[in-house]
Amino acid sequence: MPDIRLIEVPKWGLSMEEGTVVKWLVPVGAAFAEGDEICDLETSKISNVVEAPFAGVLRRVLADVGVTLPVGAPLAVSASAETTEAEIDAFLTGSGSQESALTVTAPAVRLPEEQALVQATGSASPASLSGTTDDTVVATPEARAYAESHGLNLAKVTASGRGGRVSVADIVVALAANGAEVAPADPVRATPLARRLAGQLGVDLTAVEATGPRGRVQRADVERSAQVPLPSVAPAGSKDIPITGTRKVIAERLTASARDIPQFRLNAAIRLDALLALRAELNAGAAQKISVTDLIVKASGRALMQVPACNVQVLDGVIRQFDAADICLAVALPGGLMTPKIEDVNAKSLSTVARETAALIEAARAGKLMPDQMTGGTFTISNLGMFGIDSFDAIINPPQGAILAVGAGRSDGHGYMNGDKPATVMNVTLTCDHRAIDGALGAQLLQALRETIEAPLQIVI
Amino acid sequence: MAIRSFREAINDALRDALSSDPTVILIGEDIAGGGGGIPGSHGSSGGMLGVTKGLFNKFGPDRVIDTPISESAIMGAAAGAALTGLRPVAELMFMDFFGVCFDQIYNQAAKFRYMFGGTTRTPMVVRGMVGAGFGSAAQHSQALWPIFTHIPGLKVVLPSNPYDAKGLLTRAIRDDDPVMFLEHKVLYDTKGEVPDHSYEIPFGVGNVTRRGKDVTVVAFGRMVLFANEVADKLAGEISVEVIDPRTTSPLDTELMLESVAKTGRLVVVDEATPLCSLASEVISVIATDAHGFLRSAPQKITAPHTPVPAAPVLERAYIPQPDRIEAAIRATMTDRVPARHLALIAAMNP
Fold it and tell me: For A201, which of A45, A143, A226, A271 could close a Cys bridge (C-beta 3.0–4.6 Å)?
């Protein structure tokens, strides 16, 4: 056995049980004399310097800064410069010799799991192990697969498994002993939480900077990576804007809506004169101004109560019909669309609806909407009339049953409906989820809405 | 190779052992098998489910010992016989009856080698039926392998197919320690290729019944069949690796670790109840020794923590079914960190 020795965590005082490495004072590869300061170690009571108990060369550090180890656990390996890395590996793994007791008390010496369970991609196999494995050799399926893909004869590998079975760990040991190295197929070390998060956030673990112990990727690393925009590859004269946050949610939800929901659209031109007159009358001198949108929200609440089969969410396996009409309002914001929800519209007075709507829009602009103020509901209203849009159609906000797209009110000088007198008319488009709402049912809802808007006094009673 | 049933494979192994080794004896209730009082028909039925059929007539009453209903006597006699040089194969009929003879098994047979300083051997096998699926109700349908597995000194075998049953029983009879050999009653009529010659399957060496790279499913006993069925159904969509440990003590954890190192995902399927079970054990091994490989939370599919119901509909709901296994596999593929966990992490790591 070469002159390999361990520097261990000393016991300073009766109550000391463990120590945390604060700083290494000797670089790896450097020689030291007996009594030299090797590293700073912190215990629950004091911080002190570990002095070398013998002279040697610091070949390997077994505990990185910040790692806490029990008294007696190995901190570092000392060996002469001629000693090979493989010999140190063999020493540390113990090979069932007297060091085995040490491996029980000092987890740091255990072959790291990623190495012991390494998956099979490796460099060329050494000639001393090469060949083909015949069927009489007992090996795990992974070990056999590795041997086949790398041209190893497992009969030449020392088996440690039950009944003389060769495992991948045995191959790793044998390769190391024969001077070959094995590269893990998945070279990234990561905590399970980090792996799960990376999958969920679409983060490539190999591109994440690891800050955990022994170079492991931790949760915070993945989160940091997810927030940093990817290096831009946009050509000159353009820029890439990463799809994150609200924009990402919008993209995912509406993609799902367009992909998964059979949607159909119903158009109607609705006469607005009576509603505008009512609004002017209500707003004259009133503190709480009522908007056209408020009136349409209120009218929609009433219509949904009249056609309750449209007041639904479409969920996995069920159509859930609600007693109250919770209506969302599409609000354009710089960061992307938000849909705050006005609850139980039909039970509230017009002024309450107007006040709550104004407060919700305010909260949305300030970024202070709570999640339950944006989720749920059965119906969404999107009004682009203020932009002068004549008519458009909208995509359903899942799991809601329908959405109403409202265009601008226009004076129709030619008269409305078979020679009627000139009127102000707005075009609306109702988009329905055909899984829950058939064409005739959607038409009934639109009809109820038209009647309410054209005879709007019903809204205020 | 001949196609044989699970029942015939066990009968084969017993017949081979009785033929080749004069120290092998069978002992248990009804193992000779009555003939319902018909003259000359003694020994024709071979136990409740015909597993020992024909052995009494071939080997006689000295080798195939029919006993009264006294489980403690059967196990005590077997343990004593083993201690004094025979290789008894004792039958408990339903393993659920271990309650009246467990002292002979766990505190005597399992301890002899240790208590006598390694100077003795106890080469006995305890055979019996386990598992639900026959409407045999709460006292005759249990999956008790976690209890036996818990005892140091007992080896526990849980075959899932005829080939394994023969090879493992042959090994069990030749083993020098007490072995619990658990036969799932629903498997008796399943068929498979079984060689005519005698062969052994070593203990603690699991079988990979489906090779895959996405998800590792560790299934025990009858559940291996369900896991295979699901793996075949999902082939082309999700690549499922199925591991049949074959023995629960010793347990082939190495095979599971290597598989999870590859897949990063684990589903454990066990018909036993969930507390302190093999399912718990496998997840514990993976969580400690393959922690860094896990890409999703391991899924544990077991019976509920209740007695086995007798009503067929309830019994079916009690036993883990392929649809539950499939759902668990899919869950490991789409696993997300729950929002409440992230909130908790944020709260605890300001």
Answer: A226
Percent of chain A exceeding pLDDT 90 equals 30
Judge contact between A147 and A171, C-beta under 8 A.
yes
Please determine, for residue A356, whether its predicted confidence score (pLDDT) is greater than 90. Answer: yes
Residue B18 resides in a domain? yes
Query: Higher pLDDT residue, A18 or B142?
Result: B142
Which among B254, B259, B335 is the nearest to A196, CB-wise? Answer: B335
When the pLDDT of each residue in chain B is averaged and rounded to a whole number, the result is 93
Instruction: Identify the CATH class of A248-460.
Output: alpha beta
- Same domain membership, residue B190 and residue B212: no
Cβ distance A142 to B259 less than 8 Å, yes or no, reads yes
Q: Give the Cα separation of B208 and B191 in Å (integer).
A: 19
Residues of chain B with C-beta less than 8 angstroms from the C-beta of A199: 295-296, 335-336
Write down the pLDDT at residue A313: 94
Instruction: Report which DSSP code applies to B106.
Output: I
- Separation CA B199–CA B165 (nearest Å): 11
**Whether residue B87 sits in one domain with residue B225:** no
Q: Same domain, yes or no, for B133 and B218?
A: no
ipTM of the complex in this document: 0.77
pLDDT of residue B127: 97
* Catalytic residue chosen out of the listed positions B42, B140, B184, B291: B140
Spell out the domain ranges in chain A.
Answer: 5-110, 115-177, 192-227, 248-460
Residues 159..178 of B with a Cβ closer than 8 Å to A: which? none
* DSSP H/E element including A78: strand A74-78
Chain B CB contacts of A193 under 8 Å are 337, 345
- CA Rg, chain B, in Å? 21
Same domain, yes or no: B136 and B248: no
Predicted structure pTM score: 0.58
Confidence band of B41 (pLDDT split at 50, 70, 90): low
Q: Where residue B279 falls among pLDDT bands split at 50, 70, 90?
A: very high
Buried b (16+ CB within 10 A) or exposed e, B77-101: bbbbbbbeebbbbbbbbbbbbbeeb
Q: Does A113 touch chain B (CB under 8 A)?
A: yes
- Which residue in chain B has the smallest CA separation from A198? B295
For residues B264 and B165, membership in a common domain is answered with no
Q: Is residue B120 part of a domain?
A: yes
User: Of A130-144, A278-292, B134-148, where does the model show the most confidence?
Assistant: B134-148
Exposure pattern of B263-277 as b/e (b: 16+ CB <10 Å)? bbbbbbbbbbbeeeb
Give the per-residue pLDDT at B172: 98
Q: What is the CATH number of domain A192-227?
A: 4.10.320.10
User: In this complex, is the C-beta atom of A119 within 8 Å of any C-beta atom belonging to chain B?
Assistant: yes
Q: Is residue B62 located within the same domain as residue B177?
A: yes
Would you say residue B202 lies in a domain?
no
Residue B114: domain span: 2-194
Instruction: State how many domains chain B has.
Output: 2
A111, A203, A249, A168: which is closest to B295 by C-alpha? A203
